[in-house]
Design goal:
four-stranded antiparallel β-sheet; 8 strands; rod-shaped; 152 residues; alpha+beta; Immunoglobulin-like
């Protein structure tokens, strides 16, 4: 027999030996084991709260006694607007906008020179109905300012 035939015979014999042992071991000698894989559990990350695309911003200015008042504010695009020498009496002035997150909301009001010394002026800033800022002052030239960055 040639050496090549011996090599083939040995390889075939080894393959049969391994195959026979695997078949016999599966039948009677080994007890099947369930595969168990243990990994440390990690706390699940909280889902991020979605940021609204816009917020309802409300400016509120009040005055206790009549007389002129100046009001200035930023609008929904951060442009500046104002009314000068408006006479509120004991009424309330309000402006409401939808503003994007990161927009600067700002309102200021000042009693004029003809205001009563007891005249009180207030400003309030609400975002989505929640009071964010409030200021109150009294007298001639009394000034109040309310501001915040929307959605911070």
């Amino acid at each position: 027999m040639s050496p090549r035939a011996w090599v083939i015979l040995i390889v075939v014999g080894m393959v049969m030996f391994v195959a026979f042992n695997n078949i016999a071991g599966d039948d009677a000698t080994e007890t099947p084991q369930a595969a168990v894989r243990s990994e440390p559990t990690k706390p699940r990350a909280a889902e991020p709260t979605p940021t609204p695309s816009s917020y309802r911003v409300e400016y509120i200015v009040t005055r206790t006694v009549g007389g002129p008042i100046d009001i200035r504010w930023t609008n929904e695009t951060e442009g500046h607007e104002n009314v000068d020498e408006i006479n509120l009496g004991d009424k309330t002035w309000t402006k409401t906008f939808q503003m994007e997150p990161g927009t600067f909301a700002y309102v200021t009001a000042q009693n004029g020179p003809r205001a009563n010394a007891n005249a009180t002026v207030t400003c309030e800033l609400k975002i989505d109905g929640q009071r964010i800022d409030y200021t109150e002052a009294s007298g001639k030239f009394a000034s109040v300012t309310c501001s915040d960055t929307v959605g911070h």
